[in-house]
Structure formats: structure tokens, C-alpha cells
Amino acid sequence: MGKIVLVVVTLGLVGAASAVAASGSDGSRPASATVLAEVSSVPASTFDAVGLGRVQKNDLTLTRLSGSVPGTGAKPVILAAIAEWCPHCLANSWVLALALERFGTLTGLRTINSGTYYGKHGGSPAFSNTHGLSFIDASYSSRYFVFRPVIRFARDGASLEHETEAEKGMLRRFHALGSFPALDLGGAFGLVGLGFSPGVLHGLSPAQIAGQLANPSSAVAAYIDGEANLLTAALCVATAQQPTATCGSTGVTAAAAALRRG
Prior knowledge:
The protein is an alpha+beta fold. About 30% of the residues lie in helices and about 20% in strands. The chain contains 9 helices and 13 strands.
């Protein structure tokens, strides 16, 4: 197993603009009312019980950035570069949705699975048909952040959306373009990769995954909720530790300690 790797980068601000969309569909379906409710209502007590969960035993890279990239209304930007053939991206989509819900409200989520493209093109293990969330039609309302998902590729490998030059500049601050998932967390941290194996979700439907999120003793929560606490801790750096109830919670402070340790 790998470990959390923390590196530090000091760079100037880069302007941002909306992703340039190509025509086409990602083949996702509207998420059920039950899945939507379970994603948006994980109790604070569950996050606190999970803490960092099992993320510290897995492999992802966090880069400390210097300065946020302003968005609409000068809010920091959460930029997500996603390939939907990538099982790591779809596993991460649950993590990202939980973190976003702690700072605002997501609507228009859809469900999708990664298909077999990754395995056919050399991915091993293939983690075929990993179920996750699609943000292609999602809207986000938050007093703290602007959310910009860029769906680069559909599950069959077709190109869907493209980053603007400004968004490419944001991503280049912490990784070479082309690896997924990649997240700019409000200009505070850049994240590449996933803190657990997509195999954790093997054979589980969206409803089965969502149904475990509120149970701190479930195998799914130990990974998804734990990494959501880590993303939340990183985003709290961008908001100067607001909202207090979230950023000062037991689960988030446990994850924040991992950020400080590197």
C-alpha cells in the first residue's frame, strides 16, 4: 500500500473560466431520489466516527498550493478533471460529492459506471463497471466555492469536455495534464489519484454504495467518508476554517492532522 504524499508549491494566481464543452452525452442516468438523499445527508456523527478511516494506508498525492484562483464573485474554485472510463475517478466521485455537500448543495447528480475501457487499454486490475456519480449536469450552490467539473472523457473513451487555457494552468500547478482524477481544492491543495482501491466498490450498485455512507462501521464508509474528511480539511484551508461546525469537527480535525504531517 502507498501513503499520502504531501508536497508544497508556491505559484501565482491563474485566471479561470468555464470549461469548453464538446457535444455528446456521457451515458449517465439521473440518480434515484434515494441515492440523492443518502449522499446529501451523511450525519456529522458518521464523519466524526470514521475520521481519516483507512485513507492513510493508501496512495494519493496532495500538493500544497499558494493562493486561490478566484471564480464567480471571487469565490475559490473547486476544479475537477474527470475521465468516466477511469474507475478511480468514479470511486472518487462519491468522495467529492460528500465533501461538496458540506459546503453547499449539489443538484442534478447522475449515476454511471466505468464500463470496460480502462481494462481493455491496459488498466490492471481493470475494476470494470465501477459505479459512481456523474457531474455532467450537476449544479452547485455554495457561499464558499464555485464548482467546475470538467468531464474530459466518457466511459467509452469519447472526448466530452475540454479545460480552458486558464483551467489547464490551474491543473499544471500540481500535475502533468492527463492523469485522473485531478482536483484543485479551492487553490489550497491539488489532489491527484485516489486514497483507496476502486475494488472496495466491486459489485456494488449506486444504491448499495450510497446506502453504506451513513454507517461508520461499513467497509465503504471507512474509505469514502474517510477521504471526504481529508478533502474537507483541505477545503477548510481555502475558507479560513469556515464553516466552524464542519471545519472544527472531530473527523475533519483528524484528517487535518494528516495534512500537517504530510
